[in-house]
Amino acid sequence: MTGKFLRKLSLASLLLLIPLAPLRAMGVEGDEVTRSLGLSGEEPAGVSRLPRPASLIAENVTVVTAEEIARLNAHTVADVLQTVPGVQLDLLQTPGSILLYNVLGSSNRHILVQLDGVPQNFVGGENLAHLGLIPAQVVERIEIIKGAASAAWGSALGGVINIITKSPAPDRGATGLASASIGTAATSDLRGEISGSRDAFGYYLTAGTIHSNGLIPGNNVDFRHGFGKLTYDFAGGARATLGLDIRHADMGLMRSVKYDFYENGEVRYLNGYLSLQVPLAQRLTLEVNGRGGVRESTDRRGVLSQGILFFTPEARETHQGYTADLTWGDAQNGVKTGVEYERIEVRQREPLQRIPGSNSDLGLDRHSFYANGTYTIGRFSLLPGVRVDHLNLLDDPVSATLGATLRLGQDTLLRGYAARGYSLPLISRYGSPTGELEHELQQVGTVQGGVETTAVPYLWLKGMLFHTNVWNIQEYDFQAGLLYRDKQRRHGVDLELRTSPWHGLSLNGAYTFTDARNRATGEQLEGSQSGPRHAVKGALTYDNDEAGLTAVLTANYTNWNLTAPGARSQATLWDLHLNQKLLPARDNSPELFFSLRNIFDTKLYEYDFRPAAPRWFEVGGRFRF
Predict the structure, then answer these.
(1) In 456-521, which ranges are E strands?
(2) With the CA atoms of 360, 361, 367 and 371 taken in that order, what torsion angle do they form, in degrees rounded to the nearest 10?
(3) How many CB atoms lie within 10 A of CB 136?
(4) How far apart (Å, rounded) are the C-alpha atoms in residues 439 and 402?
């Protein structure tokens, strides 16, 4: 009890220190926390589907950059999202594992994940995208839209995780990186990248492996990945980009001697895309994209004592998509309109049990038209959007959004939006227990509003209130073998704050409260349906350029409100990451790094055979050229 109290007290103290930091930061020139947050004079980062600066985005958006990712010694995108306010992972286990996640109470079924515009969701696998199988090495930035985003993105009832990969290094023939680490349970991460440009041609190539004997029993990982991007700049400003993404993971998922079972599986991704951006006039740009690929997964469940398999579902999805859109105007006044076609062929097999709905072949076609705009008068901006989808086997949705931002002086911004959106129904044996596809979509209506300010010197604050109603939410009762539909209501608050550096020290903090209830009964939903009711995140960062030292201490408290017998649903996980350049004066200095994760060996699980990873460490080095 004392240990738990001390850890909670430490986290609370860390967050309470944040407002005090600005009082000592007066010696810092400029306010670095406002960069890319829409409240500075610099050119801020925008969300790619909505070509606007952050000050003209009405949605609740968080952007994570490659620089921030490097400080965390992250292996995959899952490691990064563990630190993002409003985003919760059910468990972090061995790097390269499969995990579940939610955004402001919306489950992974309702979150669209894209990598350079290519969807990563397994439509036939409860719409799950494997965030633990996207290597952090390829990422330039991650944009998280927290809330309904269907008017711009399509099937995105609960939000979007948009991943943009690195671009070729400009003005250099070749530059690159080699990295290696080793840790507990022979957990290793080997990776390398090379990038450069010559005349009109540019390239970025990376490859790597993650291997582990398993930080918990039955959670071994063998993950291999490769990614490449080629660009060509034409005369007149046009650019063509070709990308190829290959990943394969063979992993153990869980094992229990007590219950005499085990589960393992394989996941494969092969995706490619080609895009062309053409400036047609000074304020008019055409962008054409084509994408395609294959997603495959195999799940194997068996009796541990006998080594006998009793359930072996397999899924294969081939997908292709094409978009063409026109962007007119600028960030202050403009419109982006386009059309999209997507086809996904889903093949599902289960050769052992042959349960109805387990063996199926479906072809899903979607034709879409969308338009999103920005209209600014002085300090006020209006941000409308609409999207119409035609689906061959499902209902045809119309999604809409209306947002607004208002500047109050130079240091405070009000933002808010209302939206209607959807997500595809479950396309699996759970979503179609009779073998027939449900045609009704899962739908959402949401309203969000809040404030972002730097009125307090050297302190950035952001708060968003949200109220969401969802209906036709599909839930599967595993004991009864029945599918039923729910109506849910979620409301809460998402708070973020960060400070400017003071003698190299800076603080980040976040608190998310989500009250999720069944609309029919008023009963509170447990964490497995809606994520944690309370979540607190904090980070203390020390950055000394002269010494070449960076240190990050992160804390993540969650209360999942789980009802399973024996569940450990409340925990604070602490991680420490150290990076030391050996030659600080050189940009390409060799670098040593060390990470200690789950410092206090805290227990967190719904079922004891699938817990969070225990305390573990790793050491490694990076060499840049």
Answers:
(1) 459-477, 482-499, 505-518
(2) 50
(3) 23
(4) 27
